[in-house]
Design brief:
This protein has one domain (33-262). It contains 9 helices and no strands. It has helices at 2-18, 34-55, 64-90, 109-128, 130-137, 146-166, 173-195, 206-229, 236-262. Helix 2 (34-55) packs parallel to helix 5 (130-137) and helix 7 runs antiparallel to helix 8. The N and C termini lie far apart (60 Å).
Length: 266
């Protein structure tokens, strides 16, 4: 038992203290895993029944003002990230967009900016957890699905691992850019329909947001398979794993789309 604990300590000390890139060493919610563990544990505890129990005999909270502010902040944050990261990639000389090297090997000013945008994307994913909290506080429990909880949780945990052990950047940069553009559209819709609920009947592009999300996953699957089947300075196993995750997300969203828009219509 003592040998096992010693091995765990060595592993933890090496990856969380000794083998740390200086560019991420002091980043907020990165250095130690415990704040994130607490956040994710509290989130899962609340959204998997306990929050619903708390609200069972309460009136739903009126959060329109807070949600309007939240949605518009999300629009501008995601737009800033998407444009900033895209512009940074464009500025990297001789960069092959289909094969983006690891950030550890990008020591230029552009590489530092990519790390910055990767960290910002991670923080946005942490803030995204509020989506589920708002659903429960407003007693819209039908929107708290497995897809919703799984997607938010895996994005936060995945982003932490991505920055902590891969310093951000690399092939997944495309994921952050594409996903941020998608979220600009999504939160714009949320803002408009929350600001003026009567617009829900007149805004026709609700189902197309899901189509857009499915399209992003399809594009990302192809993008992450490029290092697997071509000569690319990015870990093939890691890239294949992320491609598989995007296939899984595509199937989950496709199932949601079928139940919400195809089956219901029939």
């Amino acid at each position: 038992m003592a040998l096992v604990l010693k091995s765990v300590y060595k592993f933890y000390n090496y990856y969380f203290n000794e083998n740390v890139d200086e560019r991420i060493k002091d980043l907020f919610l990165i250095n130690s895993p415990w704040p994130l563990v607490i956040i994710v544990t509290a989130y899962l505890y609340f959204v998997n029944g306990n929050g619903q129990k708390m609200m069972k005999y309460r009136e739903p909270f009126e959060l329109n003002g807070i949600i309007n502010i939240y949605n518009i902040i999300q629009v501008f944050l995601n737009l800033y990230l998407a444009i900033g990261a895209t512009w940074t990639l464009i500025g990297i000389k001789d960069l092959n967009i289909l094969c983006i090297p690891e950030a550890r090997k990008m020591i230029s000013d552009e590489g530092k900016k990519i790390v910055y945008f990767s960290h910002l994307y991670y923080l946005i994913k942490v803030v995204d957890l509020l989506d589920t909290i708002f659903f429960i506080l407003r007693k819209k429990n039908n929107q708290v699905s497995f897809l919703h909880i799984y997607h938010h949780t895996i994005m936060v945990v995945g982003c932490y691992i991505y920055i902590k052990f891969m310093v951000g950047g690399g092939q997944p940069t495309s994921l952050g850019i594409i996903n941020s553009f998608v979220h600009v559209v999504m939160y714009s819709y949320y803002f408009l329909t929350s600001f003026k609920p009567e617009l829900k009947k007149s805004i026709w592009w609700k189902k197309h947001i899901t189509q857009l999300q499915m399209t992003q996953f399809a594009i990302l699957v192809i993008h992450f398979l490029m290092p697997v089947f071509t000569e690319c300075d990015y870990p093939k196993g890691l890239s294949a794993g992320i491609a598989f995750q995007n296939i899984f997300m595509f199937l989950l969203f496709a199932d949601f789309y079928y139940k919400a828009y195809v089956k219901t219509k029939k």
